[in-house]
Amino acid sequence: MGREIDEAWIDEAIERYQRIEARLAEFDRVVKDVTVTVSSSDGLVEVVVAADGTVRDVRIRGQARSNDELSRAVREAVTAAADAAAWARQKLHAEAFGAYQPLA
Q1: How far lies 78's CA from each of 35, 49, 62, 104, in Å?
Q2: Where are the transmembrane segments (predicted)?
Q3: Is 24 helix (H, G, I), strand (E, B) or coil?
């Protein structure tokens, strides 16, 4: 005994797939355009990072007393930038795909 093919269900599944693909393409574009700016705790270093993780700019905003101080500030700001990019990416993903239920 064969199964009947529900063509309406197939058409709906194809349309859903196409909508998700279009939304994913838009998400990929948006994460490159959205930027977050973070600073080291002492304000010495500022990093601008895109939601896709690309560092767009690094600015030294003050005078370091030593190379070690500057290195620490750069590490701190870069670490904060990575965290901020992940946060922005998650927020954008939730906005773009929050209405879609995962497949079980």
Answers
A1: 14, 9, 17, 37
A2: none
A3: helix
